Amino acid sequence: MKHLAAYLLLGLGGNTSPSADDVKGVLSSVGIDADEDRLDKLIKELEGKDLQELIAEGSTKLASVPSGGGGGGGAAPAAAAGGEAAAAEEKPAEKEEEKEESDEDMGFGLFD
User: Fold this and answer.
1) Helix axis angle, 20-29 relative to 36-46, nearest 10°?
2) pLDDT for 34-44, tens place per residue?
């Protein structure tokens, strides 16, 4: 991901076809070592391609991916697995809260 980010930054800066050395220069300027294998693979895959076209194509692909609306169902099974332990922990907490409330006013009401 860091290699792609550096590549895209170079593209935004006006370098239409960044080389591996260009990407290494960006990464080294912020103290990051480049992974040679990943960088070479990235350069080969993006060689001769227009970044704007790739971004537009990726955006259309992302638009077709369903997202949201289904996240609520995942929590129920986890709660069922540890439900007994959670119920036991909740009861003492309620008692402590009630005790704290009665201690706070010490028998005197604010408007008595």
Assistant:
1) 130
2) 999 999 999 99
What contacts 15, CB < 8 A, 6 or more positions away? 22
∠ CA 33-17-46 to the nearest 5 degrees? 75
Instruction: With cut-offs at 50, 70 and 90, classify the pLDDT of residue 26.
Output: very high
* 110 contact partners, CB below 8 Å, separation of at least 6: none
pLDDT for 82 equals 55
85 vs 81, 96, 106, CA distance in Å? 9, 18, 33
d(CA 66, CA 59): 13
Tokens (6 digits) for 48: 């001769």
pTM of the model as a whole: 0.54
In contact, 4 and 42? CB cutoff 8 Å: yes
| SS3 at position 65 | coil
User: Residue 101 pLDDT > 60, yes or no?
Assistant: no
SS3 35: coil
